[in-house]
Write a sequence for this structure.
């Protein structure tokens, strides 16, 4: 079980993180304390996602022709789905929100104003965070590449996370904790991306290091969840155990996916398929799932809950109820993703045809000009 498995099964790991996040968003009461604890730290799925994203961004920076190409790839992947879902959300459901608030929320500006939890701008905290990280990645990459010791530079850069948390704590902007506490794990992912891209060797028994790290991280998370009662301090510290949990968990998941893929053959592929699907459509699932939760669990969702109870015998707020919401979210996410991909392919195809036509016309015109300018010269030479 090695770090290389994170890269190989990156999509599957993102799928596992997305499943964990959906589970966390489902407020189902678990009587078993272990299940209850795992459910309560489901927000660590975001940390796993950001770590893997950091890894992927390092590879993307190396493969992109320039910064413009890097931003173009990120924009094509995120903006169409994000804008479609959020614009429809504010246009048809959150109609009571003012136009200015809608616009500023969609742009992500309202979130960084540090307003209180519960207002519409807080709803999409993850995407504005991702936008800022993407925006700063090229600058960070330049500094990272110049550093003689990559791990020392990473550790030094990670200190910005608790420093920002302290600033926001004293300025009353604790709502921004969700972003600042996760800067550190994103940078760890970026370092892992460098490590894998440079093909650094790793001991085959590295799982003996990752397993204790996972245990220590989970133990620390349990202590914070159980004994830290001050909510302000709790939300400032609760994500830091993910610095131990996320890398180790990614390695362990990669190892399990590898074993299932290698030794279980067809059964392994069947087991891995749900993780792959959730990973492939993770962005769209995130955009749909919490919104559906907000709709069906609110006052406007009473008709839906009554229908499910009367027709399908699925009790409101039961385990099957939340499972159904997750399945609908995945189906909508897949449909939106594939629709956007289809439109993108058509636009790209037409763009290439137009470009080829222009290039062909230019070449034809150039050749005609050459022929026309060459022909008289030849005749004069003959004469």
């Amino acid at each position: 079980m090695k770090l290389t498995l994170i890269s190989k099964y990156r999509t599957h790991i993102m799928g596992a993180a997305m499943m964990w996040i959906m589970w966390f968003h489902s407020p189902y009461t678990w009587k078993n304390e272990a299940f209850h604890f795992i459910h309560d730290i489901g927000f660590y799925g975001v940390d796993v996602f950001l770590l893997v994203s950091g890894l992927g961004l390092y590879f993307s920076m190396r493969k992109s022709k320039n910064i413009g190409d890097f931003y173009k790839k990120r924009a094509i992947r995120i903006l169409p789905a994000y804008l479609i879902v959020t614009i429809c959300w504010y246009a048809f459901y959150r109609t009571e929100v003012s136009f200015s608030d809608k616009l500023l929320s969609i742009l992500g500006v309202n979130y960084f104003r540090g307003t209180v939890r519960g207002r519409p701008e807080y709803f999409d905290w993850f995407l504005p965070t991702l936008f800022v990280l993407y925006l700063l990645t090229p600058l960070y990459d330049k500094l990272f590449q110049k550093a003689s010791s990559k791990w020392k530079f990473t550790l030094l850069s990670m200190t910005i996370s608790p420093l920002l948390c302290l600033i926001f704590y004293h300025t009353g902007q604790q709502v921004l904790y969700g972003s600042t506490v996760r800067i550190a794990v994103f940078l760890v992912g970026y370092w892992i991306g460098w490590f894998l891209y440079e093909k650094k060797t790793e001991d085959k028994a590295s799982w003996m290091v990752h397993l204790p790290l996972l245990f220590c991280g989970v133990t620390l998370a349990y202590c914070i969840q159980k004994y830290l009662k001050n909510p302000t301090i709790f939300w400032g510290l609760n994500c830091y155990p993910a610095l131990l949990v996320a890398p180790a968990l990614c390695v362990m998941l990669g190892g399990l996916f590898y074993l299932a893929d290698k030794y279980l053959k067809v059964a392994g592929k069947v087991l891995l398929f749900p993780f792959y699907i959730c990973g492939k459509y993770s962005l769209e699932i995130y955009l749909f799932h919490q919104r559906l939760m907000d709709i069906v669990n609110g006052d406007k969702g009473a008709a839906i809950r009554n229908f499910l109870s009367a027709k399908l015998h699925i009790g409101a707020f039961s385990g099957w109820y939340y499972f159904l919401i997750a399945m609908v979210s995945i189906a909508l996410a897949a449909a939106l993703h594939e629709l956007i991909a289809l439109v993108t392919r058509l636009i790209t195809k037409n763009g290439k045809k137009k470009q080829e036509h222009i290039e062909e016309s230019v070449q034809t015109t150039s050749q005609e000009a050459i022929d026309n300018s060459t022909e008289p010269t030849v005749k004069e030479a003959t004469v």
